[in-house]
Amino acid sequence: MLKLFRYLKAYIWQVIVLVGAVALQVWCSIQLPAMMADIVNNGIVKGDLDYIWTTGVWMIGFALLSSACAFLANFISAWLGASVTRDIRNDFFAHVLSLNISEIDNFSTASLITRTVNDIFQAQQAITIVLMMGVRAPLTCVLAIGQAIATAPDMTWIIALAVGVIVTLTALIMAIVMPKFKIIQKLADRITLLTRENLTGLRVIRAFNNEKLENRKFNKTNDENAKLNATVDVIMSLQNPLVSLVFNGTTLLCVWIGISLITKDFAYLGNMMAFMQYAIQVVMSFLFLTMLFVVLPRASVSAKRVNEVMDTKSKITWEPETVGKPELAPSVEFSHVDFAYGGAEEKVLQNVSFTAKAGETTAFIGSTGSGKSTLINLVPRFYEATGGEIKINGVDIKNYAQRDLMRRIGYVPQRGVLFAGTIKSNIVFGVPEVDEERMRLAARVSQSEEFIEKLEKKYDSHIAQGGTNVSGGQRQRLSIARAIAKDPDIYIFDDSFSALDMKTDAKLREALKPVTQNAVTLIVAQRISTIKDAEQIVVLNQGKVVGKGNHLELLKKCRVYQEIAKSQLSEKEFADEMKRSEVSSKTGAKAKSGKEVKHA
Hints:
Number of domains: 2
CATH topology of the largest domain: ABC transporter transmembrane region fold
Strand order of the largest sheet: 6-9-10-3-11-12
CATH architecture of the largest domain: Up-down Bundle
Mean pLDDT: 79
Helix content: 55-70%
Radius of gyration: 37 Å
Strand content: 5-15%
Structural class: alpha/beta
Shape: elongated
Largest sheet: 6 strands, mixed
């Protein structure tokens, strides 16, 4: 929790004003019982009406000043709590964005959402209450006890007894509920996860008529959370009646002991009344401290969860400036690259080597789980290769500054991702300064222009969060347009044509050729029709390269590629393609032989 309080350093002057206001308010409050005792002893007992009026006016002044200081302190503490929470949340969000994909996966998206919203809110409550009560309660307690001893030393044991009972009760309650706070936060993570999962997969749930199953799963977690919260609330609710019992008992003891002393000396009446108020102030200050004991344990659990993320250092480090001079001609080179996920025994990629050149398309194909998407994700350093070397434009990928590397890459994920805004804001997402002409070119090449022009507001048409108001194919095309608008050195299409029909796929690939003629194009695909025109196709099987060449070469020499082609083409189409590969092989052999004879 202390780590989060360091954010108060930026508001040191406001904290000083707050402490000053609290100190002045407490001092004014402490003066009132003494003045009241003075009125009784020197005014009422002696019948001095002028003294009563004069002291009463002073009491009103102190009361007004105390109220004004209390208002100022509460206002500043609330403002500081909101400001510090804003700063924590900004830093938390920025830090999450700086983590690599595997580190984010370790926490889970649902947990990060809960920590961003719920856990930081718990921290805000703690910071606000500490600012309000952290100075006021201890200061009131110390000054009130001092005044009580000076006023009626014979009765101070009553305060000690009351404080001892309150501290014991609070310690017992906290010992019971503290472990339950951790469980509650984990259940909050689970509820967020289930909510997000079900809202995302709502269509699938309805299609399989599984609403009851998902309801049971959610209700089970929700019921567990409700029962645990109810248990904690019941235990915590015991605190108020117990404190009230102590409060009332303290008052009765003060009256009982005070009356016995008044019978000996009537002038003790004022002291007894003042002591009662000091005793009440002490008990109230400890009551406020118990509020801290209620909030801080829960907030400390939340703070640990926030700090757990904030203390996570990204394993991928970036150079502040790119080391070395990248070549003008774009290229991507993998040299004996290995990759394994953290904690995994087996490698996902093993000894992968290839070179992708400018103006050429390099495609990756293989069965599910062969490592295609993982390989592609190593290029923008979403993951770090565990072995080998990757070079972009002739420079080791580890020597790039993050901004420099990312500006060279146009990335299109498997699922089209759109952000709330407009069609235009989504297309120019990576390059807000791009001109109108390039934006429209990107839309035209990605085959988005046709549906955009049919919309009433064209490029200013609204896009809902996640792009839920457009179809899957339209989302995919707009994601492709976003990469094209960036005009990068390297285009990465991670199975980005899967949501497109065959006709649109063919038109888009044809339109892409002139746009990507000076860039490296990397494509992950499941369909052979998407990649058969690629200059280089890399075939993966269980993380290893088992074939490399163009479409016809691989049909001739790569068994895995033949099996993929056979599963996707009709018997006639497959036979025709095999004949083409035979002809191409013979033609290539003759051409090679002719060159050798000519050379001889």
